[in-house]
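Customer ticket, subject: "Can you confirm the structure for Polysaccharide biosynthesis C-terminal domain-containing protein?"

Message body: Hello, I'm evaluating your service for our small team and ran a test protein. I'd like someone to confirm that this is what the system normally returns, since I don't have a reference to compare against.
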Amino acid sequence: MTAPEATARPRPETTASGVAATARGGWWGMAGSVANAVFSFLLVGLITRAVGAQGAGVIFTGVAMFTILSNTCKLGADTGLVRFVPRDLAVDGGRSVDALLRTALLPATVAGTAAAVPLVLFPSVATALLPQVPPADATALIRLFGLFLPAATVGMVLLGAARGYGTVVPFVGVEQIGKPVLRVLIAIPVVWCAPSVPALASAWLLPSLAGSVAAWFALRRCRAQRPTPRRAAGADVPWRAFWRFAAPRAVSSVFDIGAVWVGVILLSALATSREAGVYTAIGRIVTAGTLVQLAVRLAVAPELSRLLAVEKVAEARALHRVSTCWTVALSWPLFGVVACFPGTILSVFGPGFTDGALALVVLCTASMVNVAVGNAQTVLLMAGRSCWHLTVTAVAFTVQLAVGVLAVPAWGVLGAAASWGAAIVVENVMAAVLVRTRLGFTTVDRGYIRALAVGLAVTTVLVASRLSEGDTSSGLAVGMVLGLCVFGITLCRYRTLLRLGDLVGALRHRAA
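Agent reply: Thanks for trying us out. I re-ran your input and got the following:
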């Protein structure tokens, strides 16, 4: 890249187009993230109320194992499709899409099947994961998760292909709305009629199969709406480039999802299932707090890939700055609410869960660092730097595992939270430094400073309410009312610098 290219300002019409495309996907992602957070909350509440913290810990240990394996077995193919499909559509009219799908799906299917075999055939795996559960019950539970593993793996790869076509609707509809809603709808009669660990585990697993079928139909519809020419005989298929990118991503995805769930496994193995259940509830709350960031990431990723593929680097950098402002302005107040009233929020899950209040504060603080750097890791991946991303996630996961092994036996839930928080900070700071120094993607400008100011203003009001009323329901209510007032005033005051006006203008331009 030459110096003029690196410093050139993006043209208003191209920037508006990218912002508008991201905004449309972002609103869908936001709706899905809210639905996912609400129904995941409901599901955890149903399970903890039905079988207690210990039973919930057993179920979510299986969920943790299943989630880590399914994300491992997709081999990074879903992210590879998010990057390569829009590039092929933009540059070559989509001639290699069929070959890309075959390249991605076959290895993921084989890997998912191979990983399911030991879960189904070897009881020793179950007893190692659930040492406090009777061997027969542990074997039956882990075997149940193994049977659903291949289908869930394929479904996630298919959704990655659909995202490559520039739409987040299938992903949102299946992963963020369909599965969470179905899980709650199935769990309610189970809790009412026969509340048991195997039955509730089945309620969690059944929507995975339905989601994979829905993902296949969604991809067919995407391809029908945008037909592509057949690949000429003898044309080069970019499978080497695909797996050079996807292979490091396959490993880093293990670290990514492992960071979320390894605490549950460590607590189940080194502490108690009850503490694993409490930690699961904390994890659901923290994950819900990142809903804005996830919504923006879903929309930004394919757009960044497209812009970089056609060498519109300045527009890609502008898109990253704008999306970071949105994320910070809308996410910091959420974490402020949770960090100021952790006991009140955790009490929703039942008695005993308030013991994790301090752990929740630790994770909220670390997550605010995560939000502050924006989607730096998405920039690394869409720029093709999957090896850099692998290095970042590997270092962070090593930190988490080392801290967790030392801290969990002594501190329990707080130790698991401290290990995850340390990993979050290390991973995001490293990614932000690489994106800034090696790729030239900056985040700090006047709009970013104002976004931080919005978050800090709301947090200050929440802290004052906590000091006045304590960690109580009335304190939470007062804090949220005052916080919403301050949020609305400051957001209106700084809306221009936050570039929200650019978003509205871009959407109007597209509509016209």
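A couple of notes from the result: The radius of gyration is 23 Å. The first helix runs from residue 3 to 7. Feel free to reply with more questions.
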